[in-house]
Amino acid sequence: METKKYEYIDSLRGIAVLMVLMVHVGNFFKLPTTEYFSHLLFEMVYSGRMGVQLFFILSSFTLMFSFDRRIGEKNGTSNFYIRRFFRIAPMYYLAIVAITAYFIRLDVRNWDILTTPWYLSNYFFLNTLNPAWIKTIVPGGWSISVEFLFYMIFPFIASRIKSINTAAIALCISLIVATIFIYVTRGQFFFFQFDFNQINFVNQLPVFFIGIFTYWLTKESYTQIKNKTWALFIIVMLLFTHMVVPYYLFYCIIYCILILILSKKPYKFLSNKWLSKVGRVSFSMYIVHFFLIIMMNNLGIGHLIPVTNLFTSIVNFVLLYTLVFTLTYTISYFSYKFIEFPGQNLGKKLIKIRSTK
Q: In angstroms, how far is CA 249 from the centroid of its own chain?
């Protein structure tokens, strides 16, 4: 993709990670940071969790660009897996090692935990498939598992979605499956552990299909969607009147519209060099900010000023957010430069070696 033309994608990634930082500054500190917030203000902060869904949509959206560009590539599917693995694994595995060493204090007697199903599921990105595994080692690691599981099925999906109509059908089917899953598992404690019913792979899968559908909306007109497919949309709507609507759907529709607008005209306040720089290191920021908050909690940091009312609570929140962002971005700049980027280059070298044999 041309760097300037698609600057809005990195900018939206930057917005996504800023949203995630907002919700975690709001609820990950041991000392309350939203204590005097009104219900409306708290909900605005809590809505930052939807930054994860923006990441998912942008992921499938950009993967479709790459897939179209690489049609006909030799060893295309295996090369795709290599690229994706080396995009995620170096930083993620380092985070697993770091947080494990931190919590068990390098005590050799505790290292047998590394062979438990819970740990193994994290190594292989399977932890969002089972409530017993969903409590991830790396905070926020559930989303990395969801992302990687989508990578596993993406080549199959992308090769079969060849028009806006098939993209719409796939989206409808994924929404039906997710909604039925939520309905069937409702009230069962096993599926409610650690929010599994909300953040499991099946429930999050439609978000990726929204990204694919958005991609096709930038290529074709919605008028090319057939009447039978519109009927399927109606069935989905009727299903929502009797079952729970996926919590992310409203935000995802907004994200879809936002991408379509920016693809036509990248407005500066949403697409600019500053946001783009943040977006390029957003994966590192996603992982690093959890570690920073853990460290700050251990140091007793949570109130940078005395908090006694709404005004001081807001000022404290803004100061904390600014501090977490500044430290996170600074560390992530170097982790991207020395871990993420070399990891991606290693994947490219492996692909190049395979292509010469």
A: 15
pLDDT in tens, the chain (357 residues): 455 568 999 999 999 999 999 999 999 998 999 999 999 999 999 999 999 999 999 999 999 999 998 888 888 899 999 999 999 999 999 999 888 887 776 565 566 677 788 888 999 999 999 888 887 888 999 999 999 999 999 999 999 999 999 999 999 999 999 999 988 888 777 777 778 888 999 999 999 999 999 999 999 998 999 999 999 999 999 999 888 889 999 999 999 999 999 999 999 999 999 999 999 999 999 999 999 999 999 899 999 999 999 999 999 999 999 999 999 999 999 999 999 999 999 999 999 998 887
Tell me the two tokens of residue 256. Answer: 């879809």
Contacts of 237 (CB under 8 A, 6+ apart): none
Which two three-digit tokens encode residue 21? 């930082």
Terminal Cα-to-Cα distance of the chain (whole angstroms): 28
- Long-range (24+ apart) CB contacts under 8 A made by 92-100 are 92/138, 92/141, 92/144, 92/287, 93/123, 94/339, 95/138, 95/141, 95/287, 95/291, 96/122, 96/123, 96/137, 96/138, 98/291, 99/137, 99/138, 99/139, 99/291, 100/137
SS (H, E, C) 98-132: HHHHHHHCCCHHHHHHHHCHHHHHHHCCCHHHCCC
Tell me the C-alpha distance between 115 and 118, whole Å: 8
CB 320 within 8 A of CB 304: yes
Q: Give dist(CA 121, CA 128) in Å, integer.
A: 9
Distance of CA 112 to the CA centre of its chain: 30
Q: Environment class of residue 314 by beta-carbon count within 10 Å: exposed (0-12), middle (13-18) or buried (19+)? A: middle
Given a contact cutoff of 8 angstroms between Cβ atoms, the answer to whether 114 and 100 are in contact is: yes
Residue 255's nearest CA partner among 151, 263, 154, 144 is: 263
Nearest to 210 by CA among 244, 176, 159, 256: 256
Burial call 153-184: b when 16+ CB within 10 Å, e when fewer: ebbebbeebeebbbbbbbbbebbbebbebbee
